[in-house]
Amino acid sequence: MDKNLYNYILTIADNSLILAQRLGELCGHGPSLETDIALTNISLDLLGQTRSYYQYAAKISGEGKSEDDIAFLRIEREYKNCLLVEQPNTHFGYTIGRQFLFDVYHLMLMEKLQNSPDETLAAIAKKGIKEVSYHKRFSSDWVKRLGDGTEESNTKMQEAIDDLWRYTDELFFMTDAENAMVKEGIGIDVSSFKVKYYKEVSEVLKEAALTVPENKYFAKGGKEGVHTEHMGYILADLQYMQRTYPNMSW
Amino acid sequence: MTLTEKANIQENLIPVLKTVSDPEIPVLSVLDLGVIREAIEENGIVHIKLTPTYSGCPAMDVIGDDLKKAFSEIGKKAEVELILSPAWSTDWISEEGLQKMEEYGIARPLSETADKDVLLGEKKLVKCPQCGSTNTHLVSQFGSTACKALFKCDDCQEPFDYFKCLK
After folding, report:
1. How much is the pTM?
2. Is the Cα dihedral A152, A158, A164, A166 positive or negative?
3. A9-66 tens-digit pLDDT
4. CB distance B54–A37 less than 8 Å?
5. Which of A38, A67, A83, A164 could form a disulfide with A54 if both were Cys (CB 3.0 to 4.6 A apart)?
6. Hey, is the C-beta of A24 within 8 angstroms of any chain B C-beta?
7. What is the ipTM metric for this complex?
8. How far is it, in rounded angstroms, from Cα A95 to Cα A89?
9. A57: nearest Cα among A31, A37, A76, A78
10. Would the CB atoms of B141 and A134 count as touching at under 8 Å?
């Protein structure tokens, strides 16, 4: 098996899985019916994308693995998602802030990945672009609505952006698998759209009457399996059924 | 362009395919919806290529099972493969399908530009499937399934689903 390709697929897919799981927590608990439905719809899109990636990874692994094995039977250090997506739904501002900061990145990545000579990755990206642009429309609308809303909503939105900002730099950190795949012409150099990313994010924040954070401390590690303390709790939920009843199926 | 020209579907399989519907919009058959990209019978096995409307559409697994069941009822074995490329578009819904959808109470997708305008709440263009008025407004960009948004008619006051344009 091509270990680099396998890890590369997971680097992209794990972000979608963990964010889908985070959003899924809000099913039935959203602040309003419309936002509840929206967040779970986004979760479902992300989970669908995850399944396509995992099916592909399972196929190339050549170890008789299934998509479920990849989703449920890994330990924390084997998940390659960035720290941003595992951050909790502290309040609605955090949910929206996390979504927005990820959506802008996600869409830029998909736009590049759709031209990858790897046909499967390109097909998943092409399908995903339509969904992710819709996610971004939703999250950036809400950033503006909350930022440019009441004093209370502005304070909370700012608080979330300030807290989550430290996880944005990691999105552009290149792992060994990513470097190897770029060399093969299949993968995307994520650092290539870092400037574009911060420009777009800053524009939306300014329009939302929010301050672009200036802190220069950035946390990273998730993409290499070193996660924040939240990750274990997510996996405890996510993997519960498979750990309790091994090999169970619906 | 007819559906069979676009997708590679063997004529004799069409009657069976017509009996399989989308579990979430039961008035639409899989052919109306345009999710069957290929259906060919070879050596007694029907090979079907199915494409999802949205990546996470939970109806796909059910549709796959329903297809196998429909063919097994006439003594044929069917194999269903899920394909992602080319990505599904609302353009693939047949005219007959769009009409059935409206009669069912779901407003049909508008053009790409008009769709953007209505989903940003900038223009009133979506026609209420109950009374026909375009005096409608967006309630939620996301609806009961991934492919729909929620609207309300300001004339007859009925809420309804709008099938989002996807290209």
Report:
1. 0.92
2. negative
3. 999 999 999 999 999 999 999 999 899 999 999 999 999 999 999 999 999 998 888 9
4. no
5. A67
6. no
7. 0.84
8. 5
9. A78
10. yes
Task: With CB atoms and an 8 Å threshold, state whether A34 touches B56.
Answer: no
Tell me which residue of B148, B152, B33 sits closest to B88, measured CA to CA: B33
Residues B56-65 have pLDDT tens digits of 888 898 999 9
3-state DSSP assignment of residue B140: strand
Reading the block at residue B16, the tokens are: 């069976």
**B109: phi then psi, degrees, rounded to nearest 5:** -65, 140
Task: Spell out which residues of chain A touch residue B83, defining contact as CB-CB under 8 Å.
Answer: 123
Rounded-to-integer distance, Cα A42 and Cα A23, Å? 8
* A95-133 pLDDT tens trace: 999 999 999 999 999 999 999 999 999 999 999 999 999
Q: Using CB atoms and an 8 Å cut-off, which of residues 108-127 of chain A contact chain B? A: 119-120, 122-124, 126-127
Nearest residue of A to residue B85, measured between CA atoms = A123
Distances (CA, A) of A217 to A85, A162, A165: 18, 11, 9
Question: Measured between alpha carbons, how far is B97 from B132 in angstroms, rounded to an integer?
Answer: 18
Query: Which domains are present in chain A?
Result: 3-244 (1.20.1260.10)
